[in-house]
Amino acid sequence: MATIHDVAERAGVSVTTVSRVLNNRGYISEKTRRKVYDTMAELNYQPNEIARSLLRKQSNLIGLIVPNVSHPFFGELTDAIEYYAYQQGCKLLLCNSQLDPLKERDYIEMMKRHRVDGIIMGSHTLEVEEYRNLNYPIVTIDRRIDSLPYVASDNYRGGELAAELLIGKGCRKIAHICGNLQLDMLSNLRTAAFEEKLRSAGIEFVTLQTEMNVFDQQEYEQLIAKLFDNHPDIDGVFATSDIIASFVMKRCRMLGKAIPQDIRIIGYDDVNAASWVTPAITTIKQPIEDMGRLAVELIRRQMEGEPFERENVLPVKLVERSTT
Amino acid sequence: MATIHDVAERAGVSVTTVSRVLNNRGYISEKTRRKVYDTMAELNYQPNEIARSLLRKQSNLIGLIVPNVSHPFFGELTDAIEYYAYQQGCKLLLCNSQLDPLKERDYIEMMKRHRVDGIIMGSHTLEVEEYRNLNYPIVTIDRRIDSLPYVASDNYRGGELAAELLIGKGCRKIAHICGNLQLDMLSNLRTAAFEEKLRSAGIEFVTLQTEMNVFDQQEYEQLIAKLFDNHPDIDGVFATSDIIASFVMKRCRMLGKAIPQDIRIIGYDDVNAASWVTPAITTIKQPIEDMGRLAVELIRRQMEGEPFERENVLPVKLVERSTT
DNA sequence: TGACATATGTCAAACGTTTGACATATAATC
DNA sequence: GATTATATGTCAAACGTTTGACATATGTCA
I need a labelling partner for B169 at 20 to 30 A (CA). Which of A160, A316, B147, B225 fits? Predict the structure, then answer.
């Protein structure tokens, strides 16, 4: 690839002049400017960002670690993050941890080695201690770790909304399927709120936890099958993701339960897929795009030393469709 | 951040020695090695990959441009690509073109400026001319452009399989929904094969094209609604993605058509979502993971100057589920 | 005429690392 | 005692760019 020296030589000017054109500094005549641009086009010159980064001590890269981009929630979140990163001239370095702590640790180190401007963590499988000592511009999604800035939506309110809806519809025995409560995620608040509401309304419920916190079709299916074996009289389900909700629907169909007549189902996230399935899923909408935008913004602020909010909890919304 | 100089000074050795430890070259005593490692840990030293890249003229970055990671097919493909890139020590630079030619062009230039080791193009909205002059290690997904290496699955065979299945099930009037045939994509072969089979079997069919080639829920719904308005007697549908298939199912449910009794539906891709919906979608499986693996491998071979195959067409498979 | 703005050049340092050439010292081996 | 392997050091160049300091023109305006 051509370097700035090649351009200078070919254009018959000095390297400094080319740099001046490139960075719009100092005096440059229109004639020279044109000549330099022409030469760059001719040589197919692209300034080496690696050299620039080295000098500027800024890579214009944002690192993103998620369990898995092929999970709809993280796919849509990644989409948003990439969009806003691009808007401010940053590129996205994407890593799928697959919820493997070894991989996650390795990825964090990789990112530091590459001097990314900041890391957005959508996966958290390490010990709190490790994150604490990271000492790097960072934003956490859906998890509170000491004083690290985080972005989340109002999980507690989400749980309440789900409970209120199912209670309002007259459900008498409700199942709640959530992620692994051992993991210190903010999404656990959904469960807390939900259970509290049901308890105070005096409605019977059972809570099931999944093993891992990300998609495993087999596990979901077994869990749900067992749920209905043990509690055939369930008439309401609050699932912690739209994907899980769709598996519940699958099982109901199999068991001949009509939705929403015999059983009402509410999901979480409002990923696109929630409206692809039939009947379309009633769900609690997380403002995925806003979460992405905010995460990028928080990285930017940390980089530039601007003040920023540590706790960023965005509102959720009930989206009623056809499963309730 | 600590530099190699800081480590050297603190450990009481020369920079060269630290570099030797880091890169495992030359003679190093166990004692020194340990001391250096300890010091690195103490200072939280991470070698600056930017400086390394500059010297080595290798960034260990692979660029990926897709229309949109939140589309299930591209999400799963991205997942696979990231996985294999990591396996060979590369990181993934992810870009969503949103099928906007301006963005796509801009992204390609960004990637060149960042000196990525190669570009995997899952989005192709530019003129053939532009790709031709790219002059960079590149792999194209699902599109043939001159002599650029590409990865695809056997679209023609996929179209045949779909046709054979629907014919075999006794469908008499079949709709085919495909992407925009103006775009020179290899997926157009599905349509070609499908129509040919139907024609030679003497079966009536209608072909509908979507405007864009990526997800637009509104457009799909309108298109499908119109389809059934105009052709209420359709008893088979071949959709070019599982997502489109699920919208067809939605409409059928609304119209009171039983699946698969009144109408048989076959999708394409076999994304995870195909088995989330009820009934689970019969589909043509693209070997997404293999495609990802191969794409990364082709970049590697180009980088290292190893010989490689230009045309990489992987086999597809019929996965029969409950919509046929 | 002098002052100033404009336009370009030369030169060197800096970013953090690797690498080769070469020097020197100690220890082990014959 | 000579040779060799081991261990470390010094030094400088290279990767491609930016930037500041400084020099030197030419042109323009009082």
Answer: B225
Q: Which nucleotides of strand D lie under 7 Å from a protein CB?
A: 6-12, 14-21
Model confidence pLDDT, tens digit, residues B5-41 = 999 999 999 999 999 999 999 899 999 999 999 999 9
Confirm whether B321 is domain-assigned. no
Q: Are residues B19 and B115 in the same domain?
A: no
Task: Give the mean model confidence (pLDDT) for residues A168-185.
Answer: 94
* B277 and B304 within one domain: no
Spell out which residues of A between 35 and 74 contact strand C, using CB within 7 Å: 51, 54-55, 57
Confidence of residue A293 (pLDDT cuts 50, 70, 90): very high
Q: Which residues of B touch A70 (CB under 8 A)?
A: 72, 75-76, 78-79, 272
Residue identified by tokens 């941890």 is A97
Q: Please give the model's pTM, rounded to 2 decimal places.
A: 0.95
Backbone angles phi, psi at B257, to 5 degrees: -85, 130
Instruction: Locate all alpha helices (DSSP H) within chain B, ordered by sequence.
Output: 4-11, 15-23, 30-43, 49-56, 72-87, 101-113, 128-132, 155-168, 188-201, 217-230, 242-255, 288-304
Among A40, A46, A50, which would you mutate to test the B interface (most chain B Cβ atoms within 10 Å of its Cβ)?
A50
- Are A281 and A258 in the same domain? yes
Whether A263 and A294 share a structural domain: no
User: What's the N-to-C CA distance of chain B in angstroms?
Assistant: 60
> CATH no. for residue A8?
1.10.260.40
Residues A210 and A130 in one domain: no
Total domain count, chain B: 3
**Cβ of B163 under 8 Å from any chain A Cβ?**
no
Round to a whole number and report the distance in Å from the CA of A54 to the C1' of C14. Answer: 10
Nearest chain A residue to B288 by CA distance is A70
Which positions ≥6 away from A261 have C-beta within 8 Å? none
What's the confidence (pLDDT) of residue A118? Answer: 97
- pLDDT tens-digit series, residues B220-270: 999 999 999 999 999 999 999 999 999 999 999 999 999 999 999 999 999
* Same-domain pairing of A170 and A193: yes
Whether residue A36 is found in the same domain as residue A68? no
The answer as to whether A55 is a domain residue is no
Contacts of A215 (CB under 8 A, 6+ apart): A68, A71, A243, B272
Q: For chain A, what percentages of helix, strand and coil (3-state, to nearest 5) are there?
A: 45, 20, 35
Q: What is the pLDDT of residue B211?
A: 84
Q: What digits encode the pLDDT tens for the residues B45-82?
A: 999 999 999 999 999 999 999 999 999 999 999 999 99
Domain encompassing residue A244: 155-286
Residues A168 and A277 in one domain: yes
Does the beta-carbon distance from B1 to A115 stay under 8 Å? yes
Asked whether the beta carbons of residue B1 and residue A94 sit closer than 8 angstroms, the reply is no
Question: Tens of pLDDT along B193-233?
Answer: 999 999 999 999 999 999 876 678 889 999 999 999 999 99
